[in-house]
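Researcher: Next entry: Alpha/beta hydrolase (Ralstonia mojiangensis).
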Amino acid sequence: MVKKRAVLSVLLLLIVAVVAVLASPWPSVFVIRAIFDHGAAQASKALEPLVPTDIAVQTGLVYDPSDADGRLDIYRGNAASPDGPVIVWFHGGGFVSGRRADLANYLKILAGKGFTVVNVDYTIAPEATYPTPIRQANKALAFLSAQASQLRINANKMVLAGDSAGAQIAAQTAAMVTTERYAQALGISPAPLAKQIAGVLLYCGVYDITQMGQSGGLGAWFVKTTTWAYSGKRDWRTVPGFDSMSVTPYIARTFPRAFVSAGNADPLGPQSVALAGALQEQGVNVTTLFYPKEYQPPLGHEYQFRLDTEAGKSALAQSVAWLKSF
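Model: Predicted structure:
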């Protein structure tokens, strides 16, 4: 009898777990967050010895008083020029995880190369759904523009940057600001002027949601979870306007100069290649950093944060050289 009750209890728990997974994205989101948070913590710790000691830091600046997540940090390198570009970075995390603190070490290293870097937070899903992060990015840029003098930044030379989901947010925000029909499709009035966006620096992003989730397995589960969380419905295709997060179909010649990269073993790699191709077709000035299939060791998602590898070091060096061209 005791054994039978134990079996029934296990079955009941399994049923509850299955129902929970079918009824809400939250159980799967918790799994993804745990995995991503662990990876982010490891990556950040590995970079600690490389962080310069002469970086001026301003933390917790409020870009939107009405929003608990409306915060950003500014890192200023000792050799940063007040006339140089200001790099506005949005963190990754599959739209369902991550925080600006995850990237603090890497962005301080970047600032140490002679730049001012802004590290922006936004609300992740399912706590907020699309297009909340784009509205928040717009408000962050409005804040930087309005407070440029006090913050000692060049708001007329902003480079929007990001990794993974953050790259999508950066690219979409840049397209919204520089392409009127896209802003109208999103229903967002751009805060900065198009001429204030000098460029975009994009690593390992997703730029066309319609091409995602077709491989099956864990990849399909991940896409299903994140699109459910970010769109607010199990099937994002039934959510009016959600497909507008796909940047590639809206690329126009007005898109700013771009630097696009992804690893040769990154499942999202083809997205970056397709975006770069769309930019080139429109005559946009685009610099790419891709690797042949046979490159060893294979470069996975977010390879650029591995500064203990030749590819990671090269990605940083090439990003710096591109940024210094502004």
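Model: Note for the record: The first strand starts at residue 56 and ends at 62.
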